[in-house]
Design brief:
Layout: E1 6-16, E2 21-24, E3 27-30, E4 33-41, E5 83-93, E6 98-101, E7 104-107, E8 110-118
Parallel strand pairs: 1-5, 2-6, 3-7, 4-8
Length: 126
């Protein structure tokens, strides 16, 4: 992994949430993970029998793709060069994502989100 200095003049990010990473510089490995289970109900009713999530898909390990295809690349690295960023403006970084100014060996991100909405009277379709 190539190591180079990262020079950042100005960075403005409104929000970094839910296991996200802002990295200025180098890292060997990044593994942000986020699991969100949200229930929105029109009538607040809690049934403890439905709250059991042991067998839910959130807990099933993800399969990793082991695809290795030869790719011809040409890399030009100037000696003593650095990564230079003048201005960076980001509104939001969320759900196990990465913003990095630098080099990383491995990145493995996992985000699982399940939104459940329960209504007494279903909303009218648009």
């Amino acid at each position: 992994m190539l190591v180079r200095p990262s020079l950042v003049h100005d960075i403005h990010i409104d929000s970094v949430t839910l296991s996200s990473v802002l990295e200025i510089g180098d890292s060997r490995r990044l593994t942000p993970s986020s699991k969100v289970f949200a229930v929105q109900r029109e009538y607040p009713f809690y049934d403890s029998r439905k709250a059991v999530l042991q067998n839910h898909l959130f807990f099933v390990p993800l399969l990793k793709a082991n695809i290795y295809e030869p790719v011809q690349t040409t890399i030009v690295n100037e000696p003593n060069s650095s990564i230079k960023v003048d201005h960076l403006r980001i509104i939001a970084v969320s759900n196990a994502s990465v913003v990095e100014i630098g080099s990383t060996g491995d990145i493995y991100c996992e985000a699982r989100t399940k939104n459940v909405r329960q209504f007494i009277n279903p909303p009218k379709e648009l």
